[in-house]
Amino acid sequence: MALKRFGVSLEDNVLDSLDQYVEENGFANRSQAIRFLIEKNVAEKKWQCNHIVAGTIIIMYDQEKKEIYTKMTEIERIYNDVILSSSQYYINQSFCLHIVTVMGTAYRLTELSDRLTTIKGIKHGKLVMSRAD
Question: What pTM did the predictor assign?
Answer without folding.
Answer: 0.67
